[in-house]
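Recap quiz, item 2
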Amino acid sequence: MDETVPNYTFEDFTPGRRFDFSKRTMTADEIIAFAREFDPQPMHMDEAAGRASILGGLAASGWHSSAVMMRMLFEAYIDGSTSEGSPGVDLMEWKRPVLAGDTLGGHCEVLDARVSRSRPEIGIVRMRAEVTNQRGELVAVSEYINMMRVAAKGADHADG
Amino acid sequence: MDETVPNYTFEDFTPGRRFDFSKRTMTADEIIAFAREFDPQPMHMDEAAGRASILGGLAASGWHSSAVMMRMLFEAYIDGSTSEGSPGVDLMEWKRPVLAGDTLGGHCEVLDARVSRSRPEIGIVRMRAEVTNQRGELVAVSEYINMMRVAAKGADHADG
């Protein structure tokens, strides 16, 4: 990542454009470590408690799945981009449990994009992310806003 | 936490009931550690990059603020309860930046609660959480579902 060489800028986010996620396997150790810090419910900390719960096994906290999705988004398009962060998410659904050993993947897609009326140097991009497991089942869905700076005037950018 | 002695069960979640959060100060170290793992954008990793961004300082990833909110919820009412987790959130807004040194607090409140039609041993509780900073400014808001088991028949529970 080199902040002086932005990769994607607002202009790259045309409706329908997709960015694929890299695969990532969730280990029991990282599920437990996240839970210990942020969500120490028994089904996120202990295999037997997870099996006894409606989740059916040692299951990642939904917020852990969301944080992993964030990392996937970072690697898919945010790294090196003009992203200025997000004011929030319109939708965050945890559709199925994410269990220890599951391999996650998926993609995100541009829903729509417009330049901010009050801050014309900032574009407002609405995205949808879908996280799937190794059986192709949807485990998490999010729709969220990503603020991206527009390309600097005179910058050497393919779409500028 | 003692799994054999549930504290709150579904019956405790009456609309309007509030649970206060404990205070927690966000350190630069923990902001950077979370960002390194899940959201390594420059404004979450570096003070100067944060000041140069629209966030105005070294700022926690929104997903970090959400994870800290989860921990506050755990301590406020989930620990020892019959919580069975959540299918997702209807709303997750990051209203203001959470900067290194900010002290977070707030509360959550029951919006409504009903027993599941398909699984009468499970109650569906809708909650709203508000996270504030040391100036009383709202930094994060969430509305989400929490599934809670109903009190076991014959269990020694105040509302059972």
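The radius of gyration of chain B is 18 Å.
Residues 1-6, 156-160 of chain B have pLDDT under 50 and may be disordered.
End of item.
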